[in-house]
Amino acid sequence: MINLLLKIEYKGTHYSGWQIQPNAVTIEGVIRKVMRQICQYPVNIKACGRTDAGVHAEGQVADVEVPKRTDLKKLFFSINSLLPADIAVTEMVKVPLGFSARKENSGKKYIYRIITSPVPTVFDHETYLWRRSSLDFKRLEPAMKDLQGEHDFSAFQGKGCQQPNPVKTLYSVDLKIRNEGNITKTEMIFKGSGFLKNMVRIMAGTLIEIGTGRCDTDTVKRALQSGKREDAGITAPPHGLVLAKVYFENDPFTLYPPVYSS
What we know:
By secondary structure, this protein is an alpha+beta fold. Helices cover 25% and strands 31% of the residues. It has seven helices and ten strands. Strands 1, 2, 3, 4, 5, 6, 7, 8, 9 and 10 form a ten-stranded mixed β-sheet that branches. The protein is globular. The model has no long low-confidence stretch (mean pLDDT 95).
């Protein structure tokens, strides 16, 4: 067998998340079906993390073993020719057997996107959370600082989270703001060692409520101390969230040549 590492991007609007579920169309299910069709082998694809229904990805990473006889360059282009337009495998490298994207990544970057405009924009409504009124960014600064570092993020995890350890490290929480006439696009950028179920959406929702004045600026501090979900803010809608990047100490996509190079 050959072990492959894939970098995948997708628009999650019409999917029930990454993980295969009965009676639901998922990203994992679609990719696995296409790869099985091409390889004529029951492949299983394992991502470094799951995304919820409606969440997007620019840098999802997954590993999959295929038979040695597989023409890898042909496989790469065949996959993309058969996948729907809202899913793409953008990079593919051959990695050692036993390499696991889930176990060997060193962290992830998520971005929560917000667009502020007088009316919803036609081309961004599926990938940005729309708001008519802007956020008070000065109110967000102390809350963003409180989120950074190593904490027990129990107050920021959704129901049914299966991770045994709620302690995670957030390396940074940043804002990127871009004004385009009467439209403002805001990105909340979260970089961390790992994330609990719904954690980024709850952090984003809490920051949004702080920025609108619905929550005070000490909300994050109190929630981290109490560990109670009710002390944090709302869970922001999924369509504003993007898994932007997965980090490795030695990036396999730099370390190994792409299988489709000439």
